């Protein structure tokens, strides 16, 4: 399902960071876990095509996305992956519907305000966003913004979903709700998932195969050692 062997050296001033990630996951849902600065986002960006490793290869869902040497480096668009950024990266001047449609209509034209696409309407409905389709992201709650970002990531029927700390920006009650929303979605939609997190409860809930990133390197982790999310007390 996921096969990564990548090397990348990064410099900032006198600091140097060596990313040297080797991992193979046969599971549909892979979680990369680790402390801040371990190399999680860099690895996810490499999978998405937003960061180019110095060498190595990346295979996901049977497709070769990157190989160097080998001369393969698919563009982010050609990789056909849904990416949920940590801060959701919504366009503040576009409505909810336009933001979701943006996942569908790549190019330099913003999606028209009232244009309707079946796929867009489907995801607006699925995530309970239809009633706020004409609102701007600034007029939404954190959980609603996250659902818009998820809808945008899913609308183009991606081959896999990449989630960067999807619940970190949410308060605990909302975090619980959104975890349940995502779990329900994953039960419906058979899609490979790569989720990065520093939260052990995300690991317990979403990990079928887990790797801990430490100092730029991946180590297979035992899922049984991660505590389940506690029950919610409202
Ligand atoms: N463009 C860059 N240039 C130089 N160094 C970078 C760059 N991007 C990241 N780094 C460094 O690489 C290391 C790993 O960064 P990365 O963003 O992958 O960490 P992370 O595990 O995702 O952390 P967090 O959980 O805080 O997001 C950090 O030390 C960071 O400073």
TrEMBL record:
A molecular-function term among this protein's GO annotations: ATP binding
PROSITE patterns linked: ABC_TRANSPORTER_1, ABC_TRANSPORTER_2
Residue ranges occupied by any ABC transporter domain in the UniProt entry: 1-232
Gene3D superfamilies in UniProt: P-loop containing nucleotide triphosphate hydrolases (3.40.50.300)
Domain of life: Bacteria
UniProt entry tagged with the keyword Flavoprotein: no
Name the record gives this protein: ATP-binding cassette domain-containing protein
Pfam families membership: ABC_tran
Family matches, as InterPro entries: AAA+_ATPase, ABC_SmlMolc_Importer, ABC_transporter-like_ATP-bd, ABC_transporter-like_CS, P-loop_NTPase
Record lineage: Bacteria, Pseudomonadati, Pseudomonadota, Betaproteobacteria, Neisseriales
Keywords: ATP-binding, Cell membrane, Membrane, Nucleotide-binding, Transport
Keyword flag Ribosomal protein: no
């Amino acid at each position: 399902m996921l096969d990564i062997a990548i090397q990348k050296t990064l410099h900032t001033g006198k600091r140097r960071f060596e990313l040297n990630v080797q991992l193979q996951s046969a599971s549909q849902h892979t979680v990369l876990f680790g402390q801040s600065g371990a190399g999680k986002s860099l690895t996810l960006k490499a999978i998405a095509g937003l960061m180019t490793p110095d060498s190595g290869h990346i295979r996901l869902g049977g497709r070769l996305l990157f190989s160097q040497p080998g001369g393969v480096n698919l563009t982010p668009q050609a990789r056909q992956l849904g990416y949920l950024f940590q801060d959701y990266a919504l366009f503040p001047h576009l409505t909810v519907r336009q933001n979701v449609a943006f996942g569908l209509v790549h190019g330099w034209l913003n999606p028209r305000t009232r244009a309707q696409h079946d796929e867009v309407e489907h995801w607006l409905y699925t995530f309970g966003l239809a009633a706020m389709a004409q609102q701007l992201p600034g007029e939404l709650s954190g959980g609603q913004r996250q659902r818009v970002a998820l809808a945008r990531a899913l609308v183009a029927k991606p081959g896999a979903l990449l989630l960067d700390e999807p619940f970190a920006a949410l308060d605990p009650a909302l975090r619980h709700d959104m975890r349940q929303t995502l779990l329900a979605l994953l039960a419906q939609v058979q899609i490979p998932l790569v989720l990065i997190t520093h939260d052990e409860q995300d690991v317990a809930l979403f990990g079928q195969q887990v790797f801990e990133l430490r100092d730029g390197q991946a180590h297979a982790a035992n899922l049984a050692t991660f505590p389940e999310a506690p029950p919610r007390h409202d």
